[in-house]
Write a structure and sequence with these properties.
This protein is α/β, with parallel strands linked by helices and about 1000 residues long. The protein is built from 46 helices and 27 strands. Helix 34 crosses helix 46 and helix 40 packs across helix 42. The longest helix is centred in the middle third of the chain and has 20 residues.
Length: about 1000
Amino acid sequence: MRRDPVLASRVAARLRGAIAGDVLVDRTTRGMYATDASIYQIMPLGVVIPRSASDVEATIAIAREEGVPVTARGGGTSQCGQTVNFGLIVDLSPHLREIVSLDVAARRVRVQPGVVLDALNRELKRHGLFFPVDPSTASRCTIGGMTANNSSGARSIRYGIMADNVAGIDAVLADGTRAYFGDTALANGTAPTRYRELIAQMRSIAAREADEIAARVPKVQRHVGGYAIHTVDPERDFNAAKLLVGSEGTLAFFTAIDLALQPLPRAKALGVCHFPSFSDAMRSTEALVALGPVAVELVDRTMIELSREIAEFAPIMAAYVRGEPGSLLLVEFAGDEPAPLAQRLDDLDDTMASLGFPGAVVKLTDPAQQAQMWHVRAQGLNIMTSMRGDAKPVSIIEDCAVPLAHLADYTDRLNAIFARYGTTGTFYAHASVGCLHVRPVLNVKRDEDVGKLRSIAEEAFAIVREYGGAHSGEHGDGIVRSEFHEEMLGTRLVAAFREIKHAFDPGNVFNPGKIVDPPKMDDRTLFRYGPEYAPQPLATQLDWSEWGGFAGAIEMCNNNGACRKADGGAMCPSYRVTADEHDVTRGRANALRLAITGQLGPDALTSDELDDALDLCVSCKACRRECPTGVDMAKMKIEVLAQRRAVRGVSLRDRIVAALPHLAHRAGALRRLANLRDRIPGFARATEGASGFTSRRALPRWHATPFRDDRNAARRATPSSGSADREVVLFVDTFNRYFEADVARAAVRVLDAAGYDVRCAAARDGARPLCCGRTFLTKGDVTQARAEAERTIAALLPFVRRGVPVVGLEPSCLLTLRDEFVSLVPGEASRAVAGAALLFEEFVARELDAARWAPPLRTEPRRALLHGHCHQKAFGAMPAVMRALRAIPGLDVEPIESSCCGMAGMFGYEREHYDVSMAMAEPDLLPAVRAASAETLVVADGVSCKHQIEHGAHRRPLHVAEVYAGLLEATPARESPAGAVSGADRPAR
C-alpha cells in the first residue's frame, strides 16, 4: 500500500494534539519499525509511543475515524511478521511497563502489556514466585506480545502455554469500548453491552461449529493457530481471555493483563545428554519425557558447531559438551530439595544406558553452570542465524508440532524434503512436546530460493496434517502461516475465524492481514529483502571482507532484539537509559540497512537523521560479544562517520579530540595552561558554548610529568638479541602517557620487579610516541587512524616476530591493536600484532598460568570493587582481570555488575551528552562505589571509567598495575585520597 503523505500529516497532527506520548513519522523511525524478527518488511504510516492507556484509546479513536490500521508492538521479536503493517505501529514497551498490582497469597499479578518478562520475574523472585511461560526471548519480550502470540517456552510440559496462565485481560475494542475479558461468571450485568454481545456471538459460533472443532482442532498442547474458538463453551462459563490470547492484536487492544503465578522451584538439576546422531536423539525423546522432567530441549549439531565459533558461547560448550556429538538433549528436573533431583539424574543416566548410550550424560547441579547451558539454548535462534553469507535458516515451518510418538519420523521426512530441494535444515528447541524449531537454510534474496519457501511449507504441512499435528505451535501465525489455515483447519473453521474478526473489528482497524485474509506468505514485495533490494556502491574505509562487505555485516542483525535486554552484560547502554528504538543496536542496524540500499532516500548514509540514530552509540563494543550474531555497531559507526566526514566535514571540537595524540606531543607548557580551565571560577562555563565541552564536570588534568621512555631509551626501544621469554614491550597510550602517567610508571615498576625486561617501542621516525589511532576513529578520521596503525605496526613487528608480547594499559587503546588494526591495515603484519597484544592483566594471567609471575608483594588484607571497561568485557578479558587481582595475597575482589560507565572517551565531556552519560552510570556503577567503605579499593583500568567514578562518586579508582605497585615489598606505601594503597609517585623513567 502506497503511503499517503497528506493522510500521514493529518493523522500525525491529530495524534499530537490528543496524546501525551510521541508521534514519529520520519523515514528513519518508520524504517526501524518496518521489520520484526521475521523475513518481512512493511513501511508503516507512523509510530506512536503512548504514555498511558488513555493515549492508546485516543490513538484507536483517531485511527478508526481516519480509516488507518493500528498494530500493537512490544519487543518486536515476532518470527512471523505479526508486528509489521502499513498503518500506525503502537510501541508499548517504553512506557506501559508497570507492574500494577501483586497478590502474593493468590499468586496473581496485574501488569501493563509493555512489561518485559525478565523484569517481571526479577520482581516476583523477591516473593518466591515466577511467571512460568519462558520463551527464549525473555530478556526483551513483553507480556503483551506473549499474550498476543500465545507464547510458550522450554518448560511448557510442566506449566503449559500463555493460554493456560492468563487469568484476564483489560482491552479496548475497535469501537472504543473498554472491557475486561475473564471468567464469564464474574461479568454478570456489570459488563458493557458490547462485551456481552460478543460473548453471546462467540457461544453461538462455538455451538454451531462444535463438530468441526472436534474434528479439526489438533489434539496437541502446542496448537496456537487461528482464533481459540475451541476454548469457548456454548453452555457453561469459561475464561473469555483465552479467546484473545493468540489473537495477534487483531480483535482487541490489551491495556492490562492478569497472570497466574507459580512458586519458584527451590532446586533444579540438568542433564546434558549426548547422542551420536540427530536421529538417535529424536528416537530417545519419548523415553526421557517418561522420566517426568520439566523440560527436554534439543541442541543440534549445527548449533553446537556455531556456538563453538562465538566468543560468548565457546567456553560454555568446551566445559559441558564432550567430543563431537550429533545432538544434545537438555533434560531438566525441578523440585524442593536437591537430593531427589540428584537421583533423577542417576535415573536419566540409567535410561540413557538402556537406550544404548552409557556414560552420555553430563550432570549439572550447580545453578550457575545450569544457567550457562540454558543461556546457549535460549540464544538458539540467534546462534543459528549467525551463519555468514546470504543463506540463513528461514522461519516458514518453524513451529510445527506433532505427537511425540511421530517426532522421529517427522524429522526424518523433513530432512528428506530439504535434501530434495538442495538444502539442509536446522533443528532445536522443544523436543518434550514435539515442537521443534525447524528452519531450512535458504537465501531469500534469490527468486529460486523464494520459490522453495512455498513448496517446502506445503510438503511439511501435509506431513503434520497426516500426524494430527499443528502447523502453528508457538510463534503464532502472522504472515507466514495464516495463509495455510484453510489447508490445515478446513474451510468452515476459517470462515468462523473471519466471522469472529468481523464481530470484534468490523472496520478492520486492528492489525489487518493476520489470521484472516492474509497476503501470500511468499509475496516478495513484503520481504525485508524485496525484489528491488540492492546495496548501493560504497567505497568503504574499513575492510569488511570478513562479512562479504559492509552490507553483509549490517545484515547479520536478525532483528531478534537481544540488544534490548535491560539486565546482565553491557549491551546496549544507551537503550537502557532511553528505552528508544533509535538507541539500540537493532534499530541502528535497520537504519543502516535501509540507508545503504536507498530506502531512506539519496545520501541517507550521511544524513542528519542517521547521524542522530548513531549519536548515543558510545562504541562500547558490547554488541560485538553479546550480540549472538556478532553485530559490531561500534565498527559500523566508524565507517558511517568516515563517510559523513568526507561529505559534511567535521566540527572544531571533533578535530581537536581526534588530533589529541598530536596535540599532546606538541603542547609542552601549554598543558599547564589547559589545566586552568577548571581552576578559574566561571571559565569553564564561559567557554562551554565555543568548546562544546560541558562545564558540569572537570576535563582530564594533564600530568605534571608525563611518562617518558628516556632511561636507557636505545635499549628499551629495540629488540633484544637474546631470549624473548622474559621480554615485554610496554605500549603506553596517549592517555596513560600524558594524563595518567603514574599508571605507566606503576606498570614498569611491577614488571621490573617481577623480573621482566621491559621495553617501550618507539616509532622508527622517533618524532613522537606511538598511538593506536582511537581518537581519530571515534571522529571518523580513518586516514589518520590508518597512518597511526601503520606507524605502530612497523615499530612493534620486530618484537612480535621474535615472540615478544605487547602489553598495554588502556583497554580501548590496546584492544584497538587486536580489532581495528586488522580492518585498517589488512594483512599478515596487523594480524601478527593483534595476536601478540595483551592487556596488562591478561599478561599477568598468562604468566600466572605458566607459573612465571612472582613479583615480591606484601600481604595486606583488603576488599576491592572492580569495574570492568566495556572493551574488556567485549573481548572476554574480565576473567583475566579477576585472575590477576585474586593472585594478590589478601585481596578479596568483587566485580560490580554494571553496564557502560557512560564516559566512553570524550562522550561524557560533550555538553549535549552529559545527562545521558550520568544516567548510564547511575543504575549500578556509581551506587556500588558510593556504598563501599573508605578502606575498599576501587579498581578500574579504563581512563574514562576512572574519571566517571571520580566525578560521580568522588573516589579515585586504581589501575590493576597501580594495585600491584602499591604492594611491592621494596616500595613504601602511602594512602591515596580514596583510601587506596598506591605506590609513591616516582620520577619518569
